[in-house]
């Protein structure tokens, strides 16, 4: 099983409920195919780097999951068919990216180094 990340950008015209419903649909496709969702991260409404379909912002959502390769084509087909999706990107994570994400989730990067007291 490989580990993948999919970032989905939804149109900003959606309400919060409709956006959550759309994301739940894609999560259900992932879990129904026998994949295991490692982490979901909702980044919320963000400004886009460039306009897409005359829209300057979008709802961003990241899903990290373990799956076989057959799921990717099925998931991407559903993403292409859904008119609420502006853009999406799926990448397969190598072992270094998986280790980095595990450290990030455990909070290893947010710890401040201890300062020694001069005395």
UniProtKB/TrEMBL annotation:
Domain of life: Bacteria
InterPro entries linked: Ribosomal_bS6, Ribosomal_bS6_sf, Ribosomal_S6_plastid/chlpt, Transl_elong_EF1B/ribsomal_bS6
Keyword Glycoprotein: no
A GO CC term assigned to this protein in UniProt: ribosome
Keywords, sorted A to Z: Ribonucleoprotein, Ribosomal protein, RNA-binding, rRNA-binding
Gene Ontology terms for molecular function: small ribosomal subunit rRNA binding; structural constituent of ribosome
HAMAP family reported for this sequence: Ribosomal_bS6
Name of the protein: Small ribosomal subunit protein bS6
Gene: rpsF
């Amino acid at each position: 099983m490989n580990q993948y990340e999919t970032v989905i950008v939804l149109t900003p015209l959606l309400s919060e409920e409709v956006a959550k419903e759309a994301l739940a649909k894609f999560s259900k496709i992932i879990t129904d195919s026998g994949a295991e969702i490692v982490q979901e991260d909702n980044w919320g409404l963000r400004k886009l780097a460039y306009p897409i379909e005359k829209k300057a912002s979008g709802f961003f959502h990241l899903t990290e999951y373990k799956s076989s390769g057959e799921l990717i084509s099925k998931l991407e087909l559903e993403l292409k068919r859904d008119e609420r999706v502006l853009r999406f990107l799926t990448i397969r994570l190598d072992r270094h990216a998986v280790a980095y994400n595990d450290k990030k989730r455990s909070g290893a990067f947010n710890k401040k180094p201890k300062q020694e007291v001069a005395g």
